[in-house]
């Protein structure tokens, strides 16, 4: 049996894990490695990629920066989250705001220190990334269009770091990135629909608050249509192995998304739509291995 003190420490741990959304960071770490192995450095030996110390440092620095980003985002959104996510908010509040800010500065400092091992340019990159996350959380998040666009860009920035590192400019990478960017943009707008009540009360001028739900639904439908363009091009013109099955599935899910979208009226409905998009993103990460299922045998 755990003592009262041990239970308190455990609750604090789960609270901090909730604040930094550790499960999301784990998915990003896996995604960065799979993207490196199967897409960005597909021509390099597997051992060379997996045991690349510079890549490991870039992934760690990204994870540290993302965790800090979630902390500062949680700090600024604490009042809004009480309305939109009361249960999660109560768990997050088990850790004081001062403790969260201390972790925020420590994690950002560690990210910059780790980046300095790779190069000075990497330090500049992560310094700008850290500033971008703070500026988004502090100012841009409250603005329609700009907030959504910035959030989507910041979400794919960790992949841009390893893209620059490997200097792989193949066209197929552009279409993968475009697909991801559009899905993330859809997710951000769906989250705004889901959180419209708290955003309205706290003065967040999101697209649903300013232009209404119908305009938001039209925009989501247009984004879904545009998402089909890189999807069809990847299937028809590029060698993506069995990952084409993922894109077939994502196309079906997007059609289902649109049908459900125009029937949605409540927070629960929008939460379901949000989870559909989240599933596409997470499934896409693990389906990267389908590009070449024999990679472990062929590149040892």
Helix content: over 70%
CATH topology tier name of the largest domain: Tetracycline Repressor, domain 2
CA-based gyration radius: 20 Å
Query: How many helical stretches?
Result: 16
Tally of extended strands? 0
Average pLDDT score: 91
> Mind summarizing the main beta sheet?
none
- Write down the CATH class of the largest domain: Mainly Alpha
Strand fraction: under 5%
Helix and strand content put the structural class at mainly alpha
- CATH architecture label of the largest domain: Orthogonal Bundle
End-to-end Cα distance, whole Å, is 46 Å
Order of H and E elements: HHHHHHHHHHHHHHHH
Low-confidence stretches: none
What would you call the shape?
Answer: globular
Number of domains: 2
Topology:
Layout: H1 4-19, H2 22-40, H3 46-50, H4 53-76, H5 78-84, H6 86-92, H7 97-118, H8 120-138, H9 146-166, H10 171-194, H11 196-202, H12 207-211, H13 213-237, H14 244-261, H15 267-286, H16 295-298
Helix pairs in contact: 2-4, 2-9, 4-7, 4-8, 4-9, 5-6, 5-11, 7-8, 8-9, 9-10, 10-13, 10-15, 13-14, 14-15
